[in-house]
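Checklist before submission:
- one chain only
- standard amino acids only
- sequence pasted in full

Submission:
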Amino acid sequence: MSHKTCPSCGYHLLDVSRYDSMMVLSAEVAFFTLRCPSCGSLVSTVGHLSRDLRKRAQYAAIEVGAGMGRPDKAEAE
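Returned file contents:
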């Protein structure tokens, strides 16, 4: 679990696993958007994917045939 700080109010226990949206940037890193539970501000941050989030993102990609769901070129050969 990765914790971040809200830039608006300073709340320091933002949990990226409670994201509103997530864009996977690589196998281990994603761009997260979430709401601060303290002040309600929309916060965006880049952070590491936990093992659980990585598995969920990979499963979602497989479901739609995108990104992490497609085999690497090396694997396909």
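Reviewer check: Residues 51-64 form the longest helix (14 residues).
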